[in-house]
Amino acid sequence: MDSKVTYWIEMSDYDFDTAKAMLDTGRYLYVAFMCHQTVEKILKAYWSKVLDEPPLKIHSLSRLAEKSGLDKGMSEEQMDFIDELEPLNIEARYPSYKERLMKSLTSDRCAKMIGQTDELRSWIKNRL
C-alpha cells in the first residue's frame, strides 16, 4: 500500500483510539471532535488512494467524499452521519458554539457516535 495512504490510515486509527479514550474519561466534546478527525483522515486516505493529487487541506467531510468520488457509493445513512459530524470540527473549537454543543453531548450520544464512526471508517478501509 502507498505510504501516503498508510499515513492517513494510521492517523485515523490514532484519532479513533483517542475518541474512545475521551469517552472513557467523560470528555464528550473531544469525543465528537476526534470522531470528526477520524473520518476526515480516513477520507483523506481514500483520496490518496484514488487521486494523484494530495488531499485538500480542508475539514469538510462532505467535500472530501464528493471530490474523491466516494460519496457515489455511500448510503443515505452514511451521508447523514457525515452531515452530523461536519460541524463538530468547528463547534468544538469556538466558545460561541462550545457551550451549546457540550450540553447536547451525552455519554449515550457519544457512544453511538463512536459506533457510527467505526462503521464508516471500516467501510472506507474496505475500499482501500
Radius of gyration: 14 Å
Look at the helices and sheets and give the structural class.
mainly alpha
Cα-to-Cα separation, first versus last residue? 9 Å
Rounded average pLDDT: 93
* Low-confidence spans: none
The proportion of residues in beta strands is under 5%
Shape: globular
Q: Report the total helices.
A: 7
Helix content: over 70%
Order of helices and strands: HHHHHHH
Q: Tell me about the largest β-sheet.
A: none
Number of strands: 0
Describe it.
It comes from Candidatus Aphodosoma intestinipullorum. Residues 9-120 form the HEPN domain. This is HEPN domain-containing protein. It is built from seven helices and no strands. 75% of the residues lie in helices and 0% in strands. The model has no long low-confidence stretch (mean pLDDT 93). The radius of gyration is 14 Å and the shape is globular. The protein has 128 residues and is an all-alpha fold. The longest helix has 23 residues, at 28-50. 34% of the residues are buried.
